Amino acid sequence: MQNSEAIALSAALLAVAGELTQRIHEGVVARGFEGVRPAHGFAFTRLAPDGATVTDLAAHLGVTKQAASQLVDELVRKGYVERRPHPGDARARLIVLTELGWACTRAAEEAAAEAVRPWVELLGEGEVRVLRAQLLRIAPYGPIRPAW
Amino acid sequence: MQNSEAIALSAALLAVAGELTQRIHEGVVARGFEGVRPAHGFAFTRLAPDGATVTDLAAHLGVTKQAASQLVDELVRKGYVERRPHPGDARARLIVLTELGWACTRAAEEAAAEAVRPWVELLGEGEVRVLRAQLLRIAPYGPIRPAW
DNA sequence: ACAGATGGTCAAGTTGCTTGACTAAGTCTG
DNA sequence: CAGACTTAGTCAAGCAACTTGACCATCTGT
């Protein structure tokens, strides 16, 4: 594969990812969830379904645990998550989604489905399935980080 | 397409994009270009091949022109770009890549090719070509923004 | 020709992250 | 089972990339 092809692939991928993030975010806001940023969505994916500690969250987001803790503060203030005592480790706390947090997560899922719909119209259902399968095969197992 | 499938597709796409951005960045740093951030790369893609104004750059990156101007300051200080008088508009300035800027761009292209290589090994050359074609079809024409 | 739009910068404020220092609780060793 | 080390979490201060607001110089349209 030539460099120029790799560039075209990379540029297209990043453009699509940026667009997708923005559309999901807009969709969530349009459904009435204000004061949430895209980074919160990535936190939610780690907190669902059973919660996680601040340290887990920090690793998932690729930030320091102080930053993760501040993010949790903000989400608590806005009512999306709760800090609970951790069963079996008195130092730790289990951060869990509130009902509002779950509602927001469902809104994000709907927004994602909506954002993907044009792709189905463009490529057809089968091709999108192929795309998903390909991306799943090359997706890293590690933390999901901001793209930049 | 079900919501859960759209979620899986979105998550995989964003994970791959995050990974890709990080690998390209690491590759550029490994080639000796320090003090560059991923956002600079997106600026470079707009500045090549003929330069652009600060306002163009701001629109491309999806930030204010003040932010774009500050970014240009930084790139000038580090030797990657130059501000030139704009031919035909005395208000504007044409921001162009220096030789160092071009070298950095080539390094990013090599790093991108390197980051994509494992995908070829995983999926095969043909499948990657399909992936590229699909992404190019759904890629937006608009500005390339940070994913979040 | 002059009113308004546009390109760019300066200055100040906000925000989301970092590094550093610390406490409380768990774990491992002898 | 005591003492040293590690780990979870927070507090505090600083930094860096952005924002908003104000401003001047230049271009454009009637």
From TrEMBL, chains A, B:
Domain HTH marR-type, residue spans: 6-140
Name used for this protein in its record: MarR family transcriptional regulator
Protein's GO biological process: response to stress
Superkingdom of the organism of origin: Bacteria
CDD domains associated with the record: HTH_ARSR
Species name: Streptomyces albiflavescens
GO molecular function terms noted in the UniProt entry: DNA-binding transcription factor activity
One of the Pfam families matching this protein, by short name: MarR_2
